[in-house]
Design goal:
Number of domains: 1
Strand content: 15-25%
Strand order of the largest sheet: 1-2
Distance between the termini: 82 Å
Radius of gyration: 24 Å
Structural class: alpha+beta
Shape: flat
Order of helices and strands: EEHEEHEEH
Largest sheet: 2 strands, antiparallel
Number of helices: 3
CATH class: Alpha Beta
Length: 136
Amino acid sequence: MTTHSRHGKTGKPINSAKLDRVVADARKASEERAAGYRDQALKLYAWVCGRCARSFTRENLRELTVHHKDMDHDNNPADGSNWELLCIYCHDNEHQKYEEHLAALTAGRGKTSSSGGKTTTHNPFEALAGLLKKDT
């Protein structure tokens, strides 16, 4: 058993060789899954980015990616209804928007009202009435 470090919480030795095998197996499975749906998507759809409409040929096809509309890479229906082809730039942009959306949710922006909806916590005009009264 190869161990070089210890678990931060339990203090038990970490079997890095086993961990490396698990990571390698997970990467291989992910690549195989991706290859399957990518090939399918490229057969189903025109080689055009769904956002910027850039066209692709065999020479630059590596820059065209498959985007999962629901962000679940395991949701791969055979009809391709969860996929869209995006260039690498638009694909990165879609994931960035999703990350920002998640960050906003976890940051707890706004407080929840009694009806369950979001209410505003900051009112930029809060002191306006007082300022207007000073001028009169």
